[in-house]
From TrEMBL:
Organism listed in the record: Phyllostomus discolor (pale spear-nosed bat)
Name of the protein described by the UniProt record: cAMP-responsive element-binding protein-like 2
Keyword Transcription regulation (UniProt): yes
One function term, GO molecular function aspect: DNA-binding transcription factor activity
Region span, Disordered: 1-24, 94-120
Keywords: Activator, Differentiation, DNA-binding, Nucleus, Transcription, Transcription regulation
GO cellular component: nucleus
Length: 120
C-alpha cells in the first residue's frame, strides 16, 4: 500500500516539506552575515548621529524660546508698573518708520508704472 495522501486533488507524499537547502559554502555564508552586520551597525550609527543632532537643535531652539519668553515677561511686568520698555518703543517707532517707508515706496512705484505704461 502507498503512503501518499490525496488532499484537494493533489497527491502528497510523506517526507520533508518545503525547499531543500541549497549547498552553500559555509565560509561565504558567514562572511555575508558579517558584512550584513557591519552595514547594520553603520546604519544604526548614522541614525543615532542624526537623532542626536536633531535633539541638540531642538534643545537650542527651546533655550532661545525660553529666553524670549522671559524677555516678554519682563516687558509685561514693566508695563504693569506703567513703564514702557525701550525695546517696545524702538519696535513701535520702527513700525511707524517702516509703514511710512512702505507708503512712500508704493507712491513711487505707482508713479513709475504709470510712466512705463505710457512710454510705448
Amino acid at each position: 500500500m502507498d503512503d501518499s495522501k490525496v488532499v484537494g486533488g493533489k497527491v502528497k507524499k510523506p517526507g520533508k516539506r518545503g525547499r531543500k537547502p541549497a549547498k552553500i559554502d559555509l565560509k561565504a555564508k558567514l562572511e555575508r552575515s558579517r558584512q550584513s552586520a557591519r552595514e547594520c551597525r553603520a546604519r544604526k550609527k548614522l541614525r543615532y548621529q542624526y537623532l542626536e543632532e536633531l535633539v541638540s537643535s531642538r534643545e537650542r531652539a527651546i533655550c532661545a524660546l525660553r529666553e524670549e519668553l522671559e524677555m516678554y515677561k519682563q516687558w509685561c511686568m514693566a508695563m504693569d508698573q506703567g513703564k514702557i520698555p525701550s525695546e517696545i518703543k524702538a519696535l513701535l517707532t520702527g513700525e511707524e518708520q517702516s509703514k511710512s517707508q512702505q507708503n512712500l515706496n508704493r507712491h513711487t512705484k505707482a508713479g513709475k508704472t504709470d510712466a512705463n505704461s505710457n512710454s510705448w
